[in-house]
Write a structure and sequence with these properties.
Layout lengths: L17 H5 L15 E7 L5 E7 L1 H4 L4 E5 L28 E2 L5 E7 L2 H9 L2 E6 L6 H4 L15 E7 L12 E13 L7 E6 L5 E4 L5 H12 L6 E4 L15 H13 L3 E4 L2 H7 L2 E13 L5 E11 L11 H6 L10 E8 L14 H19 L3 H8 L8 E2 L5 E2 L4 H12 L1 H14 L3 E11 L9 E8 L5 E5 L8 H13 L6 E4 L17 H28 L6 E4 L2 E4 L2 E7 H8 L13 E8 L7 E11 L5 E11 L6 H20 L31 E5 L16 H18 L13 H13 L1
Parallel strand pairs: 1-12, 10-11, 14-15, 20-21, 27-28
Antiparallel strand pairs: 1-5, 2-4, 2-6, 3-5, 7-15, 8-13, 9-10, 9-12, 13-14, 16-17, 18-26, 19-20, 19-25, 22-23, 23-24, 26-27
Helix pairs in contact: 9-17, 13-14, 16-17
């Protein structure tokens, strides 16, 4: 929101989280020192698909410091189903039993008094396998002759969804059809802090688990079910979390095994994921193959869309296999498309399972649409900006239910594109591009556009717990069901409370990420925190304020309508001296002699805020690249982003999210990709082979905003956490293709490395 004089909201407020982060005072789970701690190490399969012949742990058990070694035959743990909508055949035995299905499948687990002893013991375990054919390509996995991972299922398909499948060809009668096949490659989340758990059995039979999680409450519930415990018997808490990006949103079999052994041994145990393990066991993202055919009239009006998607769910399908549904939800994008047919299938493969990763199915929808629009613009001889403007959903069409089933709240898609083009200097860029082509320069300029709409608080995640309480010292404690891992929640929620109650931000405590403190909540994912938990805090503060005004009116012998907030408390309007501090009000509220007879004790309120539906942020990105046509080298010269996340509470937090999101979008477009060989061996299993960009590879992003409020929450807010990732990737891909389109190149899949681009140039010249 635009900054208002006298209001903290809409202003750039420094993050409260940063001082302890910058000084190293924050405690991560791996920093925790627990007396009597034992160390867990997992021995993992070196082959992708095989029957287990034998596992010999005898030598491992003789290693000094080893407590014990277990295989599946020693621990009777129930199989873990990664997503409840999938057939139970796809459940994962926590310890591989009879068969392994990916490199990294857990064969045995070691507990020792030291990490080194546990690692040495794991290296001493002997394994014998009978290899089976592996499949790592989801298209090949769905073929009739493909190796089957779960014979009892009869095929590798784990999920199917679609719309318009009975309505015939949506492009029938189209004057022109643009076609594209796109691979949205697998990505590794690679948070700075890897996965792990410290499990501490308590003397009363309960268990405390410290996990760097995005959602301690759901992890608590899932873990309790796996261990045969009541949720009340299990505390799950997250200390400072060093990044999540989606893969840290759920429970892992490593958590289950470690917690089970801690209870079995009556000893606290710790597992810290090594970076090499992280690349194998932490869920991957993306992994979709998409086919799109978009029909147009001769003047560039969209007449229909036919889309087919095949998703790679990995060896033990989890939520990644379901994300085609989110792609389906957003398949209409920002465009007025009269007919859509969409069909998606998800396949199990001999690879690491996939899950939500910054955008979770929405980047793929945008990528497909934006590539089709650019292909059509090229084939129809139209300017890419012109064809987008021609097909945008009108700003007066909202609220709008799309063919994909989304219920858009508000939007102005022309506004953001026009602003992005203006800030980029689009006409000047086109002139520079034409000059370089005329001059025959080896370094060609590419200009890529992307317009997007995405869903935040998706799939029923629009409800969240929040509570606000004023203490007897005048300080305020708030509790929220979301779980921060770098976004600035403490700052944002403190701003809301401070604005509402007039309490200094330093006197506000935000509690989160601990099931002993937070009774319920849906965690942090889907860019939902401000619109849900922020709204809950807002409504709770509003309710506390109304009660405090009633109490102050009673004590000050005034009308509640005349009570206003002031510095550190409430006073009678126009008479600042006739005031009560928040400490005085809180104490009075707990004194039955001072508060009105009908008033309940305490200045506190809790609720489950329900935004009734998702919100739909949108934006436009312009990428400018230079491509060396002699080497294929790509340099991102400029990136301009105009993102609309509704009303802006703190522009500094928004800018931070934009920069982080764009950086991850650039990473997919130009650098990153998880790849396997034909036998299922990962060839990008470490940070020497998996290319994460550094600051040196990234320009200074140019970020802007428009503000189109959402009517679905009192803040008017929409999410911003994933927008940068969704908007940036197709803009960069379009820019690279645009740079070499004059050479006959029509499409290049990501990552757009120099080798990939060089090959595309040379293949186009040969053909």
């Amino acid at each position: 929101m635009t900054a208002v004089k006298g209001s903290i909201l809409g202003n750039a407020v420094l993050r409260r989280e940063d001082p302890t982060l910058l000084t190293g005072e924050d405690e991560y789970f791996d920093d925790m020192e627990i007396e009597g701690l034992g160390f867990v190490y997992f021995a993992r399969s070196p082959v992708a698909h095989a029957n287990i012949i034998s596992i010999d742990t005898s030598e491992a058990k003789t290693v000094s410091g080893v407590v014990d070694v277990w295989t599946a035959d020693d621990l009777e743990l129930a199989p873990h189903l990664g997503f409840p909508m999938f057939p139970p055949h796809f459940a994962r035995p926590p310890l591989a039993k009879g068969k392994v299905r990916l490199v990294g499948d857990i064969i045995a687990v070691v507990v020792a008094d030291s990490f080194n002893a546990a690692a040495d013991a794991a290296a001493a375990i002997w394994m014998d396998f009978d290899p089976l054919p592996a499949v790592t390509d989801p298209e090949k996995a769905l073929a009739e002759d493909a190796p089957i991972l779960f014979e009892e299922n009869g095929s590798n398909q784990c999920f199917e969804t679609g719309i318009g499948l009975e309505d015939g060809d949506p492009n029938e009668g189209a004057e022109h059809i643009a076609k594209v096949r796109i691979v949205s490659q697998r990505l590794a989340g690679v948070p700075l802090e890897s996965n792990g758990i410290i499990a501490i059995p308590e003397t009363d039979g309960s268990l405390t688990a410290w996990i760097p999680s995005q959602n301690p409450i759901s992890v608590r519930d899932a873990l309790a079910g796996e261990l045969g415990m009541e949720p009340s018997e299990l505390r799950v808490a997250a200390p400072t979390v060093g990044g999540g990006f989606g893969p840290k949103g759920g429970v892992y079999v490593e958590h289950i095994i470690t917690a089970h052994l801690a209870r079995l041994l009556h000893r606290p145990l710790k597992w810290t994921e090594l970076r090499s393990e992280n690349m194998l066991s932490l869920a991957h993202g993306r992994g979709m193959i998409m086919y799109g055919e978009m029909g147009f009239s001769s003047d560039g009006v969209i007449t229909g869309l036919d889309a087919k998607v095949i998703a790679d769910a990995g060896a033990y399908p989890a939520i990644g296999g379901f994300l085609t549904f989110f792609t389906q939800t957003m398949i209409q994008g920002v465009y007025d498309i009269p007919r859509i047919r969409y069909h998606a299938r998800s396949a199990a493969t001999n690879t690491t399972h996939t899950a939500a990763y910054r955008g979770a199915g929405r980047p793929e929808a945008t990528q497909l649409l934006e590539r089709l629009i650019d292909v059509a613009a090229d084939e129809l001889g139209m300017d890419p900006a012109e064809i987008r403007h021609k097909n945008f959903i009108s700003e007066d069409a909202f609220p709008l239910t799309t063919l994909g089933g989304a219920n858009y709240d508000s939007g102005d898609y022309s506004l953001v594109l026009d602003k992005a083009l203006e800030e980029a200097g689009y006409d000047s860029l086109l002139a520079e591009q034409e000059k370089r082509r005329s001059d025959g320069s080896p370094k060609q300029l590419g200009i890529g556009l992307s317009t997007y709409v995405e869903v935040t608080a998706p799939a029923g995640l629009h409800m969240e717990y929040g509570a606000v309480e004023v203490g007897d010292d005048g300080s305020v404690t708030a509790r929220v069901g979301t779980s921060a891992h770098g976004q600035g929640h403490i700052t944002a929620f403190s701003m809301i409370i401070s604005e509402m109650l007039g309490v200094d931000m330093e006197d506000i405590t935000i509690l989160q990420s601990d099931t002993d403190e937070i009774p319920r909540g849906q965690g942090t994912m889907g860019s939902r925190s401000l619109q849900t938990a922020g709204s809950a805090v807002h409504v709770a503060s509003e309710t506390v304020l109304e009660k405090a005004k009633e109490l102050a009116a009673h004590l000050l012998e005034a009308s509640a309508d005349d009570i206003v907030t002031g510095e550190g408390g409430l006073h009678v309007a126009g008479v600042p001296s006739n005031a009560l501090s928040w400490a005085e009000l809180s104490q009075a509220s707990n004194d039955e002699k001072k508060r009105p007879a009908e008033m309940e004790a305490g200045l506190a309120h809790e609720l489950d805020f329900d935004g009734t539906d998702s919100t739909f942020p949108f934006g436009a990105h312009v990428a400018v690249v230079e491509v060396d046509t002699e080497t294929g080298g790509v340099e991102l010269v400029r990136h301009i982003a105009v993102d609309d996340c509704g009303r802006i509470l703190n522009p500094m937090l928004v800018t931070g999210q934009q920069h982080g999101g764009i950086a991850q979008g650039v990473a997919q477009a130009l650098f990153e990709g998880v790849f396997y060989d034909e036998d299922g061996n990962p060839v990008t299993g470490n940070l020497m082979d998996y290319a994460i960009p550094s600051a040196a590879e990234l320009p200074s992003f140019e970020t802007y905003n428009t503000e189109t409020p959402s009517p679905r929450n009192p803040l008017g807010a929409k999410g911003i956490g994933e927008s940068g990732t969704i908007g940036s990737t197709p803009a960069i891909q379009n820019a690279v293709v645009d740079a070499v389109a004059y050479l006959g190149v029509r499409h290049i899949d990501m990552p757009l490395t120099s080798v990939t681009v060089w090959n595309a140039i040379n293949e186009s010249q040969v053909n």
